[in-house]
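Mods, move this if it's the wrong board.
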Amino acid sequence: MLTTMSSRLISSGATVAVPGAVAAVAFLASFAAPTGWRWLWLALAGLTLVLVWLGGRRRPRLGAGVPARALLAAGAMVQWTHADPGLPWPAAVGGGLLLGLLLGEDLLYRAARPVHVAANLPGSLRQLARLADDGTAWAVSSAAIGLLGLFAVLGWPAWTVLLPAAGAALLSGVLLVDAGRRRRTGHRAELAGLRRAVAAHQPAFLLYFSAPAGSEYQVTMWLPYLERIGAPFAVVLPESHHLPGLARATGAPVVGHRTVAALEALIAPSLRTVFYVNNGMKNAHCVRFTQLTHVQLYHGYSDKPVSVNPIATSFDRVYVPGQAIVDQFRGSGVDIPEHRFRIVGRPQAEGLALARRPVHEVEDPVVLYAPTWAGEYADSNYCSLPIATEIVRRLLERGATVIVRPHPYTKRDPGSLQQLRAVEQALARDRARTGRPHLWGPAVSSRLTVAECMNRSDALVCDVSSIASQYLYTQKPYAITDMVTDDGGFTGSLPLARAGYVIRRDAANLPEVLDDLLVRDPRSATRPELRSYYLGDFPPERYAEGFLAEARRCVSGQDGPARRASSSAAPAAQ
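Not the wrong board. Structure tokens:
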């Protein structure tokens, strides 16, 4: 877990360190008197501001990149010492004012920011507060810094510095006054605007999503099927960092709420159902609205013990692909009444092509290697990347073409990332030598869906993850790595392994496993029965209808618990 946390700190720190380093170089360059160096400072200052703008997942809010921008403001004041060694008082006042505004930006943002942000929801936010959050206020104060230095480089009169400084100060003052007014009124105007906009949209259901940055895939895999339900809906987020990416992925409204009152404003009279795709702790903010039906979809089921979390008991309905997951809950002692489960299949599998011929008839097999991530804790680490180079080496020896599709969280762990890089280098060398069209990196993660990777493959090597159960739909052979026991003996606790082939964590049995996977395939007859057990028994031509039919029943109110009164629930209409 410490490794994962350090990786996140490094990743998030890069967006601060890189602009900061460029700003530091700009600050040092500002001390050089020659005119050429002064233009270099200006170029580096512009580059710093561009890096800060591009460094986040959305437009920079007020308070973003303050250390780097403060260095730029200090460098701009140094430029005035070259223009006038006495540092004229207007330049000193303007520079000092900008520095003060920069140092107070974060506090101003906390006071002035809106209680919600939204995309694809017309009329939800017409307040001044949006300027603190949409990049406008940041751009004004950053432009003032650039102009402070530019006027010095151009040799303009010192009093002109007061103009951009005064403009930045005026906007900050307006935001501060507006923040005080909104706080005194309890943000009534903003909440009323949000309530009106949501009521006009008349959503029948919400998708509530809380997760770390980089987890948007958990939602995007479900969006096409939620849209096919045929009822208006909205995506609701307690963290706004997901908003830009999800707003690009759907035309439905995407709303980030920052207060309980803002969430309550989203609970329109038309709502009946809320869907969830994970066990995020902040789901509790929404589950408390007991007049609604709360449905857990999950973003993927596997035979990992973590897949059957007791938190699932807080939902009115738990949609599962097949009976296997219901049995897994029972076997793990998680007491969920039978009537709460709904077997709906795995709709994402509908686009998967079925095996056209036995694997031994394939002359040049394509093998998809899909390792999972290392997890937060050692006892949930099923990742096979420590033996990945050996797996890939053996596949290459057999003339296989390899597609590598790692879990999106792999980059969180530096050790896993290094192991993945070694695999990619091996594939690059083999492609250069043999011409085999191996695929990895952005060519896979950005340009191909998981389903497309599966359709291009003839066999799969993966870890204990939802990839294995989804691949089961294709009836193609698969191998699963056992990274938790010494002898590959976890088959008894892992039903999926009974139709696949188990690779030991020391990789000693790889030759035999690959013979089974790519040549003999002795368990081919086991897969059809296991597919029904894991993925439901729905006709392939209408496979997604298993989910859509149940979801429509729930959204229409035909399948849901009796409406319950609760003092913690917000009124249905406000």
